[in-house]
Amino acid sequence: EASEKAGTNIFLVIWLTFVAIPILGVWYMYSTHTGLEWWQTTIIYQVYPRSFHDADGDGIGDIAGITVRLDHLEYLNVHAMWLSPFYESPMVDFGYDVENHTKIDPIFGTMHDFDELVEKCHEKGIKIIIDFIPNHTSNKHRWFQESRKSGDETNPHRDYYVWHDGKKDLHGNPMPPNNWISIFGGSAWEWDPQRKQYYLHQFLKEQPDLNWTNPEVEQQMMDILRFWLDKGVDGFRVDAVLTLFEDPSLRDEPESGKKDASASQHEHLDHLYTLHQPELYDIVTSWKKLLDEYEEKDRRQRFMVTEAYSEDISHIIKYYFSGVMPFNFDLVEADHRCNGECFHQLVDRLIRHLPKGKWPNFVIGNHDRQRVAARMGPQFVDAMNMLLLLLPGTPTVYYGEEIGMKALDVSFEDTQDPWGKFFGKERYQEFSRDPSRSPMQWSGSHQAGFSLSPKTWLPIHPGYKSHNVEYQKYLSTKSHLKLFRELALLREDPIFQTRDLDYAVITDNIFSFVRKHGEQQTVLVAMNIGQVDSVNNYSERPVHGTFGNIIITTNNLVIGNNRIDLRNIKLTPGQGIVVDVIVGS
Description:
Blueprint: H1 2-32, H2 38-41, E1 44-47, H3 49-52, H4 63-68, H5 70-75, E2 80-83, E3 87-88, E4 100-104, H6 111-123, E5 127-132, H7 142-149, E6 163-164, E7 167-168, E8 174-175, E9 189-192, E10 197-200, H8 215-230, E11 235-238, H9 280-298, E12 303-306, H10 313-317, E13 325-326, H11 340-353, E14 361-363, H12 372-375, H13 381-390, E15 394-398, H14 418-422, H15 424-431, H16 469-474, H17 480-490, E16 502-506, E17 510-517, E18 521-528, E19 534-536, E20 547-553, E21 563-565, E22 569-571, E23 576-581
Parallel strand pairs: 1-2, 1-15, 2-5, 5-11, 11-12, 12-13, 14-15
Antiparallel strand pairs: 3-4, 6-10, 7-8, 9-10, 16-17, 17-18, 18-23, 19-22, 20-21, 20-23
Helix pairs in contact: 8-9, 13-17
């Protein structure tokens, strides 16, 4: 009988160890994620196709090159990838001037390459998000070429764009209809000698604005969404949605009063009649309904995120009520002048205004802004990745930030960006986005492992030999890359899968916050974003603990003992720490 009991006990231990506990663990993890969609739990990784990997050796990144490098995303624990434009285009604005929305530009490969990318992504559990560019097309687009021919009723494309006769000067010469300025600078109106009217372009003159008051335009763009949904994409990032509509009365916009903006700069005017017009939110709602239709068919969640910058948070919040998530760009402007209190204000702006039940998100870099190492300083790269990945909500990371890529110094002669070129040799460095778009640094080999070509579309950063993925991955000590991966894995913990956020110590130097899971677990995240060392007591509310166990530190912080006294933590500039608080200690 004793041996039978012993046998039963051994069987019970084995069953608990290898069957029951793992099943309960899986159930627990699943139950904590109940109600969350894939886009709420993943990191979104932005790939700029020209700069990620060149598979065909022409010096320009391509779709096949992205497929080759998918293992990198797996290593990073990234489950969603956003691709910047790859559509057929004259490339005046590097793909944001679309000539054909349903064709792949030969620079990037073929539709077969794209289909293979989608297939491989889904095999690896990676969702694919693509750019949708609804505000404008290229002036080479068939619609625009047809629209130029005539403004009479015999032309089915006559109202696909925003046309106007304009005004006349004293000599009878045509003048723009109003004072609107394009985002790239100069008049937002361009005279077309063929149609003998002005057309609106809120960006480059090669990017005429579509007329969204025309139902045919709305339907055409809806069909483009359907085309890519049928191709298997999981979501869309909507480009420049804030410029979709304009005041139909074409009223002049008042001056902004910004003294540092010249008369030809977009910032010179207060854009009351060209940005954030109320009609656009109904259009966004209609796109979300289309995504819902597809979800009902196959039970696969689709995702949409909008790009819209605004100093007025109410403009951004409205997108939530259209059923989509607006990118939160508050952190992309932060630079070395932004200290702990400044970051607190930037983070809290969204948190404070977030509607009930809506999901936050944070972005710290993209293809239009300076790299983190350039804005904040290289010593703050790890702290910024810690901040981005451990705040509540969905983080979006720009390629290369996981290895702390630095800005490329590009001469005016080598400048590719039209925005930089517009301002000339004297001011191009203020506006050019090229420094943030240099090719990805994969290894210390030829062209940083990006390409076999003797020349790449932008130069490789000269520091690539010791600053690349391969080097940081196999380094015997800590690296930016390995820390990023640690943080990405830590995000899987249920404590980081909620909206909850409590602020802890906030000073000129320190920004710190607490993430909680019920009453049993509290994690403190603290970082020094200032310019001097700081010793602080973190044990008080909302931490409620004297001691904790260190989970992760930035690479520049070494603490011999895993146990730490929360009453006396010293952080120097750029250092960050994540602590599992012993609640009640």
